[in-house]
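User: Structure tokens for this complex, please. No commentary.
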Amino acid sequence: MSQPEKLPVVIISCLVLQNMLERLLPANLAEQVSFLDYGLHRVPDKLTWTLQDAVDSVEKPSLVVLGYGLCGNGLDGLKAGKHTLLVPRADDCIAILLGSRQAYIREFESVPGTYYLSKGWLESGSHPLKEYNECVEKYGPEDAAWIMDQQYQHYERLALVTHSESDMDKYRPQAEEVAEYCEQWGMRYEEILGSDDYVRQLIEVATALDKAGDDFVVIPPGGEIRQEQFIR
Amino acid sequence: MSVMYEQLSTVVLKGNEVATPDLVQKALDEGMVPKEILDSGLIVGMNEVGARFKRGQMFVPEVLMSAKAMHAGMEVLRPHLVASGAKLIGKIVLGTVKGDLHDIGKNLVGMMCEGAGFEVINLGFNVEPEKFVKAIKEHQPDVVGMSALLTTTMRAMGYTIKAIEEAGLRDQVKIMVGGAPVDADFAERIGADGYGSNAVNGVEVAKQFVGTV
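Assistant:
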């Protein structure tokens, strides 16, 4: 796909990719970079509306780079309007954090029942231990324990994904605390050193759309993101 | 009467596992028809739970508490449903597809299908296509229901339908799919016969398949 005239680049991303993007983005590539709250995918419709508003509010016709995957269909139905959209062809941020679709498939096939923790998810407090504490407040310990069992009893592994040894050291104590809580379901704790390859490629493709290949979805102006574009 | 139905749906919506069975008992004591207690009370509440969940006004813990309340109500109601002559309307095999271990919604569909008069064979989670095939051969169900929570795993629904086709069993069952990432388009693309947008709707689809709606 060609990029007729050089469009201004605008980045709209989930906070979960903030660190990687801020570290890797060349200084003058993007005219505008904004990060949206963690966890919007929990209500996929809300993610769609929020992102649509963010895309629509970009004034000049631009290449809008989305730091998202399909995210539980949160991107399904997102309209490009006057912009061109570029998005990793990934189901969710796990493949992006691990560095590639292949890395994700490898992890998925080895242990399908994996709960992933990352710096972003830990910082935003999205993990089973936090959920349990919130449920205890609301429902008392007995019902809270039952609610957690219903959601997590079949999981086998808790995996902390970071992108450097120093981050691993930094987030390990918090992750281990979650791991200790999750032991009740026989979940084991593992650490995975992710890769920033996917984000690097995203940035590269943003400068030359013809390099998009199979790992990215590009939507021309007037087009719309559809679930089937991600299924392969 | 209608006040009682409203109360029944409200206690399910609020996830009140104590009040729900009590209220079901009270409704029975007042001579209300068991099937009406279910259809106009409990299920109306659960339907609203599904709608609010979709809109982000309710989250998984609240949905679970509603399911628990519904379950507690069903325990009281079930013997009366049977005694009042509600006959089995069909047989359904349910499972969460290969690679996916989320079974809250699927179990909810199972519980509600039982309430609607289905015999339910629940295969559990992470169910291989071959296991669905084997269950069809063994149980001869009218309906097969598949569930997945992730876009990553919903592809396995298509593989399962292929396996059922290859085993020469496709014509003897109606297949329905459901789960958060599934929509009508996807269901059609993979060759399913129907799609349930939430648990209550899933049961409606199953009932249509066996010709009781």
